[in-house]
Amino acid sequence: GENVEQHPSTLSVQEGDSAVIKCTYSDSASNYFPWYKQELGKGPQLIIDIRSNVGEKKDQRIAVTLNKTAKHFSLHITETQPEDSAVYFCAASLSGGSYIPTFGRGTSLIVHP
Amino acid sequence: NAGVTQTPKFQVLKTGQSMTLQCAQDMNHEYMSWYRQDPGMGLRLIHYSVGAGITDQGEVPNGYNVSRSTTEDFPLRLLSAAPSQTSVYFCASSYDTANYGYTFGSGTRLTVV
Question: What is the per-residue pLDDT for B109?
Fold first, then answer.
């Protein structure tokens, strides 16, 4: 089955810096890659996703890049703010049948004011 | 539009007791899943369903039962609670997990003493 590795497990940055979280996947057939943000005491929330026919997608200060050859995808957050502090999860899915996504272990992002 | 509603938000059980965690969604999503979240372990899949009347086991199904009699509801039953089942439980739903992300509930924090 699919295996998703997420790094780093903890990331500490100063407000205004950029943050990058990287995930690698094992199944080359995976073609849908969502990212979730989980604030303290809440459920994860989908913040951005990318499909395999796209190399990059942006939404204001966040962007996701996908390298299908290397089987990795990354979340980029620019101009970080204290409210970006949260746990971020990546996931990978493949189409067809009743496939359930595989999640990474999560990255705790801490943005220091 | 309520999204995914989980009840209760908090619960304390004694070892050996049984209970049902409720999950309901009003988005007409076919896919529903239950995850548990423990420190450092990310999200682990307990059971999932790809439509009414269809359920399957995830990564950590032992000690839990599910049923899906309607599209809207996906209750999780703890048969005989054990301290190892102390965790935060999240229900999630999706139109199609191969192409769309999950909508998560706000979670149930369960303590088994």
Answer: 97
Angle made by CA atoms B97, B103, B108, in degrees to the nearest 5: 120
Strand partners of residue A24: A5, A72
Residue A22 parent element (H or E):
strand A19-25
User: What are residue A37's DSSP bridge partners?
Assistant: A45, A88
CA distance A113 to chain B (A): 25
For the beta carbon of residue A33, count every other beta carbon within 10 angstroms.
27
Q: Number of residue pairs across A and B with CB atoms under 8 Å?
A: 61
Interface touch B104/A44, C-beta < 8 Å = yes
Q: Distance of CA A37 to CAs A24, B17, B63, B75, Å?
A: 18, 33, 29, 25
Spatial distance between the Cα atoms of B17 and A78, rounded to a whole number of angstroms? 48
For the stretch B58-88, pLDDT in tens is: 999 999 999 999 999 999 999 999 999 999 9
For position B70, what pLDDT does the model report? 97
A106 Cβ neighbours under 8 A, 6+ residues apart: A6, A9, A38, A87, A88, A89, B42, B43
